[in-house]
Write a structure and sequence with these properties.
heterodimer; A: mainly alpha; B: Rossmann fold; Alpha-Beta Plaits; 2 domains; four-stranded antiparallel β-sheet; 13 strands; elongated
């Protein structure tokens, strides 16, 4: 079982390397992280936080958008691409279970994601610490951001595989992936904000809003990192609402979502005859 | 001897259209069986059902005693799809390495395997740079991994040049000699005629004929054609002596049923001093194939 998963993972890493996905993911993360750490360095004195903690707060806001995007970009082709190239029927005649194929792809894509995240955050941390040695105090927050980013990425890899299995065409899977990203990462928050404003402190804001935040892995990720770092002051937007939700709940959401999305992906991939 | 592959009364429909109806067949170890049929006759569907990629609606299939698609069956079956496709970014060696590892084999033999199909020189190039024939050989190489008990090959020689085809059939002969059962589909009838033990003809999802070529020839009972060249000036005499004969491009054509062959030949031999040459042409595989695949009104 492990050998078969690793065989698929090795193949996927070869493919991602040749298709420049590794390079694209790393460059994206490094470039955005550096831009943010440069832009976010101004308000340190005012807030009294160390420089790296402020950078982590900025990176949290960035990663909510970027990590799901990179994960979906890597995963939307996973099943639909095999169907369209005509490679899936042959693969399925091998003594390998469908979930083992997905697991192999997950191992490879997660590894690439880890490399990109570590490179991006690492670059930002190096710049922050070089400018202000006191920034070492923020390493704990950075570590927390790193592993939660990987879990967030894994959740969206699972969503990507599920969409890829359902669409069965690369173009369709790409459209669904973009739609999912827009919906979960951009429109979801806008919708919640609009509802909170309209509700003006009523039942929605006190009851439904916290659950709605936990129900979205991207929001749970943001909540967890902001509350854990006590950096809500450095963040804008829905950060203020974060204090109302216990930290264990957002942590649970971050941990459970990858499992749920991967189970969904496995179920979507199990259906259908190649 | 127990069969490697046994299928009885297999039925499969796609949305009301019957792709396979009541198909039964068996392939014994070491036997090379050719599956013939028009496009859409059900060959690929039958293969996909055998491989467990498509679930049948009815009937029974057993592969080395296991159900199609079960881990046990998949461990013993190799498949070569029609127009074998691989990820263009992988090299031949990487692709074969993956497939060997999926079969729990040490991938150190990958290079040797690629050498057997004549791809040793291209093993470290991306499959995207390969020609169609080379991709087909990658497909063949993966089908040779391990020691499959059953090989299911969907038009394995399409895209191969004549020399590669001969090499391919030599590989198959070796596998069959080692006890592998081979089921292959093809449109190249003459090739199949020389290189397989038995023929199956599918038409409209039904098995319309199966047997060795002499069996099918006998069953079809198609007329034998005879071409006669007359010695100058005797053509009229021959036409008079053989009422059924007609003149085509200076050659006299005559056909007779299988069971009249000898009496017809006796009548011809009575005319030996008037005939320059005689060719007896048995029905070709194409004729036999057309006969069976058109029988149910197609």
């Amino acid at each position: 079982m492990i050998a078969r998963i690793l065989a698929t993972a090795t193949t996927e890493i070869h493919i991602a390397r040749r298709n420049r996905w590794v390079l694209i993911a790393v460059l994206l993360m490094v470039a955005f992280s550096l831009v943010l750490s440069a832009a976010g360095s101004a308000p340190t004195g005012v807030l009294g936080a160390d420089r790296l903690s402020v950078v982590v707060a900025s990176l949290t806001s960035l990663s909510v958008y970027l990590v799901p995007l990179v994960a979906l970009l890597m995963s939307f082709d996973a099943v639909a691409g095999e169907v369209e190239r005509g490679t899936l029927p042959l693969l399925l005649t091998y003594p390998v279970a469908r979930w083992e194929i997905l697991a192999g792809k997950l191992v490879a894509h997660t590894a690439i994601l880890i490399v990109a995240i570590v490179a991006g955050y690492g670059a930002a941390a190096v710049v922050a610490i070089a400018a202000d040695p006191a920034a070492l105090a923020g390493l704990g927050a950075l570590w927390r951001l790193t592993w939660t980013s990987v879990l967030l990425g894994a959740a969206f890899l699972g969503f990507g595989y599920a969409l890829s299995s359902l669409a069965r065409r690369v173009s369709g899977a790409a459209g669904l992936a973009i739609g999912l990203w827009l919906g979960m990462v951009v429109l979801y928050d806008l919708g919640l904000l609009a509802a909170v404003v309209a509700d003006n402190g009523g039942l929605f804001t006190t009851r439904i809003f916290p659950v709605a935040l936990l129900a979205n892995p991207a929001d749970a990720f943001r909540l967890f990192n902001l509350t854990a770092a006590h950096a809500t002051a450095a963040a804008s937007g829905i950060g203020g609402a974060a204090n109302a939700i216990p930290q264990w709940q957002s942590l649970a959401s971050i941990v459970i979502w990858p499992l749920v999305s991967l189970v969904l992906a496995a179920m979507a991939f199990r259906k259908g005859e190649p | 001897m127990t069969s490697t592959l046994t299928i009885s009364r297999l039925t499969k429909a796609f949305g009301g259209v019957k792709a396979l109806s009541d198909v039964s067949l068996a392939v014994a170890p070491g036997e090379r069986v050719a599956l013939l049929g028009h496009n859409g006759a059900g060959k690929s569907t039958l293969m996909k059902v055998i491989l467990g990629l498509i679930a049948p609606d009815g009937g029974e299939i057993s592969i080395c005693g296991a159900a199609p698609g079960s881990a046990q069956a998949r461990a013993q079956v190799a498949y070569l799809p029609e127009n074998a496709a691989f990820h263009p970014a992988l090299t031949g060696l990487e692709q074969i390495t993956q497939y060997m590892r999926l079969r729990n084999l040490n991938p150190s033999g990958a290079m040797e395997l690629l050498g057997r199909v004549g791809l040793a020189g291209a093993a470290k190039r991306r499959i995207g740079t390969y020609s169609k024939g080379m991709r087909q050989r990658v497909g063949l190489a993966q089908a040779l991994i391990g020691q499959p008990r059953l090989l299911v090959l969907d038009e394995p020689t399409s895209g191969l040049d004549p020399v590669s085809r001969r090499d391919f059939y030599e590989l198959l002969d070796g596998l069959a000699a080692d006890g592998a059962a081979i089921l292959l589909s093809s449109h190249a009838l003459t090739e199949v005629e020389a290189r397989t033990d038995r023929l199956l003809i599918l038409s409209g999802g039904r098995m319309v004929a199966q047997g060795t070529l002499p069996d099918l020839r006998r069953e079809a009972a198609l007329p034998v054609a005879m071409h006669l060249s007359a010695i100058n000036g005797y053509e009229g005499d021959i036409l008079a002596a053989l009422p059924g004969a007609i003149r085509v491009n200076g050659v006299l054509h005559l056909t007779c049923a299988q069971d009249e062959k000898l009496t017809t030949l006796a009548r011809i031999s009575a005319l030996t001093d008037k005939i320059a040459d005689l060719d007896v042409i048995p029905p070709s595989l194409e004729d036999i194939y057309s006969h069976f695949s058109r029988r149910d009104g197609q």
